[in-house]
Amino acid sequence: QFLMLDFAVDEGLLQKEGRNYNFAHDQIQHAAYSLIPEDERVRLHTHIGKSILRYVSDDEVDDVLFLVVDQLNRGAAFLEEEEEKMELAMLNLRAGEKAMSLATFLISASYLKAGISMLCENQWEKHYDLCLQLYSLYAEAEYCNGRFQDVGLATGFVLNKAKSFEDKHRVFATLIKSLAAQNKTQEAMHIGFTVVTKLGVERNFSLPDKSVIMKEIMEIKMALAKTTEAELLNFPEMKDNSMITAMKFLQILVFYAYLGKQQSLPSLIVQMLQLTLLHGICKESCYGMASFSFLLCQFDDFKAADHIGRLSVLLLDKCKAEEYRSHIYLLYYGCVRAYNVHIVQCIDKLLHGYHVGMLTGNIENAMHIACIHQVDSFLLGRHLAELKAELDSFGKLMVEYKQMFARNRIRPIELVVSNLLISNDCPSLIGAQNTEMEDLLEQATKENDTFIICQIYIFGCIDAYIFGEYELASSMIGKRQEVEKTMSRRLIYYGMVDFYDGLVFLAMARKTNDIKWALKAGKALSKLESFAQNGKANCEHKLLLLQAEMKSFLGENDDAFGKYESAIAVAGENGFIHEQAIANERTGDFFVRNGDSRASQYYGKSNTLYLQWGAQCKADHLCKNLPF
Q: How many C-alpha atoms does 19 have within 13 Å on its Cβ side?
């Protein structure tokens, strides 16, 4: 029966593996295919697709779905009957859904676009549900691909053709995310507020009454802080469909309020929790709880924040809300948990959240988790060469998926890491008038992107301090603090910002003998003491070093030396190699000021630790600037 195939095997054209025959090379397949007349190829593809469908059971269709649809699509030009076109459109929808579930968004979009091509103008009247599903899912797939122009066209089509407001919900959500990904956050938020209001949620999100919001926050905190895990699992389920949909849009709005329209953030989070407590729990309730735990960190209530954050993870599993896992992990493990435990305990959870986000199509959220993962890796003192490679990899993905906010967010860290890695004649990043950093700052200022502006000043300050540019570092702090006055929540990174602020202020106090710097350092020290009460593993060595510097400034040398030694030891025990290096360098400075020859011993240790961190440029800078 297969003599000719066996002959082809003997001739080396085919390879036989069990009952299967495969072409020995792609070029042989292409040559054989080119011999088939073009019109005959189309008919053959159609025949192959239909034959496969005919001989597989309904249960097996999913296993060969892509193969069947690929064959039928290549023969679609010969379809004339409307019924056949609609059948193929439905198969393309099914294939597009499957491809989306596998996170192959380009492939999904190609199937959905092929399905749409089977439709004609009057199909919205004849096959409304099919048209609605094809266009809505196509918009989602192209959002994941970063093709925002196609998203706009597809969502516009649905908004024009949909019969009801309810049928527009899905594309409104996609449109909001698409606009925000293009840095059109204000427009995205306006659409979201309009949708939520139409769903029956009456609230002034844009200009909330602060006193009312504070009262509501305290009431919700008191209710949830007393809620046990067992009690949470017995909460009733939300039944009102309008409120469930409102919760979905509030979830989206909370995410973008955090990134941009921060004055609306507390009001949005409070609304999610109020709906949950009034109407019962839904999948989005776990996001609301995680967001509320994040909000409590603004008031330094880290213990209650951690408890409510853990409740959000519990609720996530109860509701089987896998589509929100990356969101919850971003908020809890990225913004709350590390105030109470060592940062290293959050790193793997963040990576897991990133991978889940990519698999479930939450691309933007996944990229923001990647940002926090990279920031935390830097704060941990991860080897700079490894961190640089990871930053480059994530950066390329962010550009590929057109997630430019996330890209800009990690750019300051990238520049600082590169600067520490590579030895050069002008070590300080901003002191070198780095064009890219200046351009990034100019763009963020033009767009009033306070988050990115603060990110630039925070990491610019760290870079300047490490290289001894104390005036520049203090200038960065002053500019950052001016921007922070316009924000509802400043970036603190588990006490790291106050740590470097305090170090810079004390360096300036020693350099200028101006008491104002010592007073500022005292305030930073008080803040760090608060952080250390909860997150001892992350902050103890920072607090000890800041205390050592303060005691040295005050002339309490015996106590200062003990604090320096403790800071070095604790930083080593907790794995903060970069800050252990800084502590050794400051101890060397301390001994130089006191004419003690032990200074060289500590400078030597500092140099070794900087090299172990991968900071070649800083190690060279230290050697060139030794005070003896």
A: 1
- The residue whose two tokens read 């097996």 is 60
Per the CB < 8 A criterion, the answer to whether 369 and 329 are in contact is yes
Closest C-alpha to 590, from 579, 602, 574, 578: 602
For the entire predicted model, the pTM comes to 0.77
Cβ-based burial of 161 (10 A; exposed 0-12, middle 13-18, buried ≥19): middle
Angle at 297 between CA 533 and CA 201, to 5 degrees: 160
Listing DSSP states for 420-460 in one string gives: HHS--SS--TTTTT-HHHHHHHHHHHHTT-HHHHHHHHHHH
Alpha helices in 485-615 (DSSP H): 496-512, 515-534, 536-553, 557-573, 577-593, 599-613
As given in the structure block, the two tokens for residue 85 are: 């076109």
Q: How far is CA 427 from CA 395, 417, 477, 606, in A?
A: 24, 12, 19, 17
For 107-129, the pLDDT digits (tens) are 999 999 999 999 887 889 999 99
**Which residue, among 534, 517, 537, 626, has the nearest Cα to 579 in the 3D structure?**
537
Whether the Cβ atoms of residue 521 and residue 502 lie closer than 8 Å to each other? yes
Instruction: Quickly list DSSP for 254-301.
Output: HHHHHHT-GGGHHHHHHHHHHHHHHH-B-HHHHHHHHHHHHHHHTTT-
| pLDDT level of residue 25 (50, 70, 90 thresholds) | confident
